[in-house]
Specification:
This protein is an alpha+beta fold and about 160 residues long. About 35% of the residues lie in helices and about 25% in strands. Strands 3-2-1-6-5-4 form a 6-stranded antiparallel beta sheet, sandwiched between helices. Methionine sulfoxide binds next to helix 3 and strand 6.
Length: about 160
C-alpha cells in the first residue's frame, strides 16, 4: 500500500476540508471490507485531517449495548446502553445528534472531563443501526451542519463497503 497522508493544506474552509477529505478517503478505503481495519483507518484519517480530540466508533454487539470499537484519542468508556448518553440516544433515534455543550445534554456520559461538545452519527446497514461514529471536541460548539453533512457522507461510504 502506498503511503497516504490526510493532512490538510492551510486556508481551506471547513466545507472544503470535508470535500477534499471525502474524495481522498473514498479512494483510500475502497475495497477494505474488514470492519475493524476500515474503522481503525477511518478514525486515524479523521484525526489526522481535522485534529479532533477524540474520534471513534461504538458498535452494537448486544441488543441493548454499544461496545467500544476502533478509536483515536484518550481511553474511553467501553459499554454504553441503548438510549443512554449521546451515543445511546443517537442509536435509539437512528439520527445524528449535534451537541454544542455536553453539560447541557441530559445523561451525557463523560468519558473525559475535557470533552465539551460532540457529534454522533449512526451507522445504518440494511435498515439497522450497526454502530455509531462519535467525535468529541475539547471546545464548545465545534460541530455544525457542515460536520453533520460531511460525516453522514463519510459514514454512508463506510457502510456501503463493510
Ligand atoms: N459522550 C458519549 C460517550 C462516549 S465518549 O464521548 C468517547 C456519550 O454521552 O454517549
Amino acid at each position: 500500500m502506498a503511503e497516504q497522508s490526510f493532512s490538510m493544506p492551510a486556508g481551506l474552509t471547513k466545507r472544503e476540508r470535508y470535500e477534499q477529505f471525502l474524495s481522498e478517503f473514498a479512494i483510500f478505503i475502497e475495497g477494505e471490507d474488514d470492519l475493524i481495519s476500515a474503522l481503525a483507518n477511518t478514525a486515524a484519517a479523521l484525526r489526522e485531517a481535522f485534529g479532533f480530540f477524540w474520534v471513534g466508533f461504538y458498535l452494537t454487539k448486544e441488543p441493548e449495548w454499544l461496545h467500544l470499537g476502533p478509536f483515536q484519542g484518550p481511553v474511553a468508556c467501553t459499554r454504553i446502553k441503548k438510549e443512554r448518553g449521546v451515543c445511546g440516544t443517537a442509536w435509539a433515534k437512528a439520527q445524528t445528534l449535534v451537541v454544542p455543550d455536553v453539560d447541557a445534554f441530559p445523561g451525557h456520559i463523560a468519558c473525559s472531563s475535557l470533552s465539551r461538545s460532540e457529534i454522533v452519527v449512526p451507522m445504518m446497514k440494511d435498515g439497522n443501526v450497526i454502530g455509531v461514529l462519535d467525535i468529541d471536541s475539547d471546545q464548545l460548539a465545534t460541530f455544525d451542519d457542515v460536520d453533520r453533512e460531511g460525516l453522514e457522507t463519510l459514514v454512508a461510504i463506510l457502510c456501503r463497503i463493510i
